[in-house]
Design brief:
The protein has a seven-stranded mixed β-sheet, with helices on both faces. The protein has six helices and nine strands. It is an alpha+beta fold.
Length: 249
Amino acid sequence: MTGGQAGGRAGGPGALVGGQAGRRAGGPDEAGPFTGHTGGVSAPDAPQRVSAGRLIATLGGAGLLAGLLIVVAYETTTPAIEAHRARRLQLAVSEVLKGPARYDTLYLVNGELKTAPPAGAAAEQVYLGRDAQGQPVGYALVAGGAGFQDQIQLIFGYDPKTRTLLGMKVLESKETPGLGDKIEKDTFFVRQFGRSATPLKGVKPGAGKGAPGEVDLITGATISSRAIVKIINDALARLGPALEAGAAP
């Protein structure tokens, strides 16, 4: 073995170790690109603060726009809704009065029927049906009261001369589907209010004695059908004298 080789062998491990140690010791210092990248990251910018005045102005503008859209929608749809409501009432009056040639709208003022509404005040309305010769055929009255689930609103025809009903139609109801809603879908129950004497008396099916004013209630919907009887009786107790007296100028 020559001296150079021995020297190489003798110095090889030291040189290797020294080189590795140097690289390890100096590694972080020599990682220029990485160190530069790390040093180039800046702290995030602080969020820009919005002034309270600007925030209020933005919210106020959005609220104003939403309000304007609601007003426009209301003004646009109201005429159509009112026209539909008037048409629905016209059909209901015609149904419970058996198709009058026309009808007049009367107003209940201080217990009397008037042909003109009171100035500056709302008044309950009653509809007087007339035949082709202009003779009265009966009144149509809108009335309401508590049912089983919610309020029930109906309209019925009434002849004050004979004190008999001419017909009945439910206008609004939220009674239980399949049970309470039979007050408007059960044709036998509804037909009983045509030419029935008043006051009405609700009886269980088959338990009646044939007395005037008896109305067979609906099995499974006793509360709802009894509510119809009560609504009509209450309305006639309140309005009957005015209807019998007729309209005053």
